[in-house]
Amino acid sequence: MTSTPLKGSDRLTAGPLADGTATSVRPRRLRRRGRSAPYWFLVPAVLLFAAFTVVPIGYAVWLSLHKVQVKGIGLGKGARQQVWNGIGNYTDVLNDSEFGHSVLRAFGYGLIVIPTMLGLALVFALMLDTPQARSAKFARLAIFLPYAVPGIIAALMWGFLYLPTVSPFYYLLREFNLPQPDLFDGGNLYLSFANIAVWGGTGFNMIVIYTALRSIPQEIYEAARIDGASDLKIALRIKIPIVMPSLVLTFFFSVIATLQVFTEPMALKPLTNGLSSSWSPLMAIYDAAFLRSDIYGASATAVVLALATFALSFTLLRVSDRYTREDRA
After folding, report:
1. Half-sphere exposure of residue 133, counting CA atoms within 13 Å on the CB side?
2. Are 202 and 119 spatial neighbours (Cβ–Cβ below 8 Å)?
């Protein structure tokens, strides 16, 4: 008696048939489950992203299109109603000169921070990648350690170091009869904030660049040294061009962080009278939302800032991608 072999997806995983032939069978249902398994693993991440990113952004956009209408003196039930305002809040934001000044201050702050921070990160990474580097592990840890300090703690620590009454730096300046600059006044504020950002952010960018340097095959360096190239020429003509994508990445991160500067000026504001409550764009949003209770205007300002950050990042990415393609060609 012979048995009819099962076909295609109707086969079951079983032992040998009566005629001695073995079967390796997977039903369609098991195949479908196997194909959908990766998507089920993505569900928690998608839900968290939607709950804590998509929904808040959508709610902010919705608030930015409304305003509060006050009837009479604003007392009693129904005296304050939320009504549609369209692009009115956005018009107010774009016509607000103080918000424009805060954006300009953020760009001025970035012109100091970004070149200094990335320049130091690149120099440190190149120094640690040389064969002559000693105690490289300790140096990497020492340079990266300030990044591990929370931003608010770093800002307060440097803030007290800037105060003439408690700072050891001002004590040394007085002892040697040297000028004692006011680091909380005028243009010195930019240097004070920039110092905190450079001190805390250089280590992170150095690690990114250093990791890219370590991925370069050593044979390239050996061939360059055989041709008589010095360490300086190797750094300028081989290492920097190869790690340029990492430099572009850290540059984009730094630009976004510059537009979102908040911790440093907000932490130092109680220590000085020369710092306005809307010094940076995020401080202007905080001032509108929590000090002036204008949550609708603050939402519109946040949306404008997000769109400006996206547009700037997209433009820089396109420009860098074009130049990268030209260099490859």
Report:
1. 16
2. no
